Amino acid sequence: MIIRQTPVEIHPEDTLIHVPENIVTINLDHLAHNYHVIERHLSRTARVMPVVKADAYGHGAVGVARRLVAEGAEALALARVPEAVELRQAGITVPLFVLGGVWPEEMGLLLEHALVPMLLDLDMARALAAQAAARHAKAEAVLKIDTGMGRLGVFWERAEEVLSGIKSLETLELIGLTTHLTQADKADKAFTRVQAGRFIDICRAAEGLGFTLTHNNIANSAAVVDLPELAPDYCRTGIITYGLLPSDEVAGDLDLRPVMGFTSRVMQVKEVPAGTGVSYHQTWIAEGPTTLAAVPVGYCHGYLRSLSNQGRMLVHGQSRPIRGRVCMNATMIDVTDLPGVKAGDEVTVIGDQGAAKITATDLATRAGTINYEITCLIGTLNQRQYVGQ
Q1: CA dihedral defined by 353, 355, 359, 362, rounded to 10 degrees?
Q2: What is the 8-class DSSP label of residue 7?
Q3: Using an 8 Å Cβ cutoff, are 276 and 285 in contact?
């Protein structure tokens, strides 16, 4: 007997099921505050191009983009074409720059939605110009120069050769050059200045070839904080837009406010006797009678397993340590000597609770990673709610 089932229509928003108690709060007023703090920190000629790739570092690209545009952002940066198309479909009309390259099959979408790619080589420039010619249009683009990152773009010693090739493409208008700084988040800025020098030389060579460059950009978040003079036309602000510094070696004292908070609730409280092993492989053993609170946050929610026996969460205004391994769906915290904790009590994973505070940077330090990874994982995998809209 063959049973035929009626196909079920799947909507994208149905493909990820969120647990109701885990809430990521995005404070758009803090986002706006950060944007204007950055603006005031820069020279009057430099403009801010907030980076909203990776779903705005887990903060939600559409909601973040709308508020940034409302605050005056004239351009936004993303990594790939589909991310930019999502913003266009959401009604975002400012210039959108695609940082991570474009596949040949994406160039039609790029032109259709008036996106500005950062070209990685002459072949990509020729392909885009050909697509534009076929549509009787002209494409705008920025050329990525590798001044020392060793990743994407034209190696700086070949830049003039590539620029000469682009100059002959009638349906492609090069509006700027860009590069990526590899060590701007280090205290020693020597190599950053080497990269900046190479970039300035190439900008001058491009102008000598007849290019009119209005969208040059070199400064990332770290450079914006410590070297704001490296912002010729635009600066690409990523993590500082969301209220976090790129590293503890960045010396700036900007008044940034974290945009993301993350809360959950206690699922169960229980007493265990001395000698009890907690969680997988019993990596923590109770030395005496211990009160444990189970929190339904685990690595499937972006809370890194490397925070096992390292991380902390806030409950009743107190910072409490994690005991044992972080599991897929749960983490145990020690609430011994903290009377009155019960199922349903709020737990703060990121944010403030009374005088106590945990930041994404705190979690990153304990986990041996960077705050970018913390926000991207947690913000993408849990339900979000926005305040300050």
Answers
A1: -120
A2: P
A3: yes
Whether residue 312 contacts residue 319, with contact meaning beta carbons closer than 8 Å, is answered with: yes
Whether the Cβ atoms of residue 331 and residue 298 lie closer than 8 Å to each other:
yes
Residues 281-304 have pLDDT tens digits of 999 999 999 999 999 999 999 999
Who's near 161: CB < 8 A, 6+ residues apart? none
CA–CA dist 241, 30 (Å, integer): 9
Residue 280 is a catalytic residue: yes
Say what the pLDDT of residue 46 is. Answer: 87
370 vs 26, 179, 212, 240, CA distance in Å? 19, 22, 38, 13
Domains contained in the chain, CATH given: 42-242 (3.20.20.10), 260-387 (2.40.37.10)
φ, ψ of residue 81 to 5 degrees: the values are -60, -45
The one catalytic residue in 35, 57, 280, 386 is: 280
Instruction: Choose among 62, 104, 68: nearest CA to 86.
Output: 62
Q: pLDDT digit string (tens) for 213-227? A: 999 999 999 999 999
pTM over the 0.85 mark:
yes
Exactly one of 53, 242, 303, 372 is catalytic; name it. Answer: 53
How many CA atoms, within 13 angstroms, populate the side-chain half-sphere of residue 110? 30
